[in-house]
Amino acid sequence: MSDPALPAWAREDAFPLKPEDSKYGFRDQAGKLTSFESLKELRKYLAAGKGKLAWVWVPEHDRFIAPEEVPGLATSLKKRRALLSSDDLEAGRKGIVIFTLAILYFGYTAYSMGGFEALKSSQSVGIGAILLLLFGARPLWGGYKGMQEMKSTSAETLNEEIPEARFDLWLISQPSRLAILFCGLLCAVFVVQLFTDGIAAAGIVKPAYKAGETWRLFTGAFLHGNILHLGMNLSALWYLGRRVEILARWPHLASVFFLSIVGGGWATTAWVTTNSVGISGAVCGLLGFLLVFETLHRPLVPSPARRRMFGILVSLIVIGFVGFRFIDNAAHCGGLLTGAAYAAIVFPKSAALSRPHILKQDRLMGGASVALAVFCGLAAMVIMLTH
Questions:
Q1: What are the pLDDT digits (tens) for 284-340?
Q2: 52 in Cβ contact with 30 (< 8 Å)
Q3: Domain boundary among 127, 153, 173
Q4: pLDDT in tens, 101-133
Q5: 154 and 31 in a common domain
Q6: Which domain holds residue 41?
Q7: Distance CA 227, CA 15 (A)
Q8: Looking at the structure, do residues 147 and 205 belong to the same domain, yes or no?
Q9: What Å distances lie between residue 131 and 122, 124, 328, CA to CA?
Q10: Which of 69, 103, 227, 340 could form a disulfide with 128 if both were Cys (CB 3.0 to 4.6 A apart)?
Q11: Rounded (5°) CA angle 288-289-292
């Protein structure tokens, strides 16, 4: 039975019922089931680092549970973490070598063509530095941190991790249709952009905007500079958007998304003279919303999961600093502040263990925001095709 005295992820019915045809088993994040007849077989499977870790089932529980909830798996999980941390360290080392060489190559090319000024303004060098951070330094740090945590892993420490583990598994098991819609819309716009002069047609081209084409503030957010730009924004939108949709409900995802497009767009038109495209202002709005919302609703989210949002904020600041010559930090700040302000105004501080209820006015505003966002995305495609 569902216990209203607990947050949704901590309740007994948070996860589905387990299969009845085997005693032990493993379910990965894609939903694939792997059955075992003994705990020993399950331990061996997990210790080998197989499968993308998600739920397990054991005879003592009627439903899927987090692996951290099974004391007998402590040693296997410790070995698994050692393997995965080792993989992260190796990936980090390779990333550092690859992107350091790329930075040196692009830096040498830029310097050869235009001297020190060309080197300072090289976008390729800046992108290489960001990729070095994302695919070199970050996995290297994650692997090192994982190795340190692995050394102290025991049944007792795993017991302390149960809330975070259940929260993460609960999140990935929840539907998030609106986040899918927004991601799909961005992909559709990008496909059209590949065959048109998209930025000139519908991007936030500052001279055109200031000449009266203010509609560009709404269409430009759905365009992207390249596939890497789109991929990074899609990844962030999927992660943060799903979290907002699940914790605060869909109307607030829609409202924050659209209002942050406006807030980020206004900031870039006010403070940046170069052309601008991308949904990162809205993405930063979702981050700002979560930082405030989760602080005001602490019982809904375990502390380690809340701290991750601050880690993302630090990463955003570092990336913005490294790529300040071509990253629109004004749009990021505008979106971030818009999302944070929305959460502070709409949601009072609460010790409630249940997620907010959807009110009539929430549905109306959320529905209008979805319609406006879809309209802007479709308008961007029509404008590009008819330009």
A1: 999 999 999 999 999 999 999 999 999 999 999 999 999 988 899 999 999 999 999
A2: yes
A3: 173
A4: 999 999 999 999 988 888 888 889 999 999 999
A5: yes
A6: 1-173
A7: 36
A8: no
A9: 15, 10, 17
A10: 103
A11: 85
